[in-house]
Amino acid sequence: MILYFSSTGNGKYAAERIAAGTGDRVVSLGDAYKSGDFDLSLDPGESLGLILPTYFGVLPSVVADFLEKAELRLTDSNYVYTVDTYGFHYGNVAAELAKILRRKTGREQDADFLLQSVDNWVPNLDLTDETYVQSALDKTDEALPGIIEGIVQKKRVRVKGEWPAPMLLMMKKAYKSASRTKNFTVNDSCVGCGRCAAQCPTRAITMTEGRPRWTKANCTLCLGCLHVCPKNAIAYTKATVGHGQYYNPKTTR
Ligand SMILES: Cc1cc2nc3c(=O)[nH]c(=O)nc-3n(C[C@H](O)[C@H](O)[C@H](O)COP(=O)(O)O)c2cc1C
Ligand code: SF4
Ligand code: SF4
Fold first, then answer.
1. What domains lie within the chain, and their CATH numbers?
2. Inter-axis angle of helices 10-22 and 130-152, to 10 degrees?
3. What is the pLDDT along the chain (253 residues), one digit of tens a residue?
């Protein structure tokens, strides 16, 4: 099983490429979370791939919550690997995931692979910069064949957490604070299509009188709502205005 969480397609693209190389089934964590399906049963000898983005150097909160709730049993016959998609620095995702797996299943993953991708953190990145986007897409395509080969060969390569505990704590606090939905606004170009609400993995958006309202105080901050809007009507603070939208052009939503 290849379980991926992806709001702008980098992880989905990686999952599809890996599936083409391994023949494994692909499962969307976002869809499973929304439908309340936490069954991660594996057959003996089946591999489990976890394809995840880095958020503030740690796991997206929705991923951590999903894994806590998941029905997951691992034996030594299951090869378990992570592929961490990131923009500039992967932080401690693999190490954070290892802690959850050890607590839940008594063992950690066998391998971690790092996949540099387009950084979808649009408050900092101007994604109208086609040169940046193309060079990041090229980096992904250069790295993927080696990663797929490593997975097929069941290589055992682990990535250690890079950050000391105080730095990790600071990043976790920053992520929590940034996840407040009061940071989102919608402008008058909204046509009420509801795609933002349909996209949200945490059901934080409700359509009211033809407009999105963020009805939960916090969300997982995937920015999927902002990137999916056909009118680019959603902003996350003023920092995203003029920075464009992104979805990995090598896959479909
Ligand atoms: C809330 C948030 C925080 C992020 N933090 C980081 C980060 O700390 N380091 C990094 O390299 N990329 C960071 N990114 C970029 C994503 O990890 C990267 O673009 C990832 O490939 C997105 O995957 P997806 O297209 O499958 O959703 C962040 C993105 C978001 C939305
Ligand atoms: S996706 Fe955009 S246009 Fe559609 S309802 Fe949401 S904000 Fe409005
Ligand atoms: S409100 Fe937007 S950013 Fe937050 S979880 Fe939902 S889709 Fe992602």
1. 2-165 (3.40.50.360), 180-238 (3.30.70.20)
2. 30
3. 999 999 999 999 999 999 999 999 999 999 999 999 999 999 999 999 999 999 999 999 999 999 999 999 999 999 999 999 999 999 999 999 999 999 999 999 999 999 999 999 999 999 999 999 999 999 999 999 999 999 999 999 999 877 889 999 999 999 999 999 999 999 999 999 999 999 999 999 999 999 999 999 999 999 999 999 999 999 999 999 999 999 999 999 9
CB-ligand 1 contact for 119 (6 Å cutoff): yes
Residue 201 CA: distances (Å) to CA of 129, 134, 138, 250: 28, 28, 28, 22
Nearest atom (ligand 3) to Cα of 214: 1
> For residue 89, which atom of ligand 1 is closest to its CA?
11
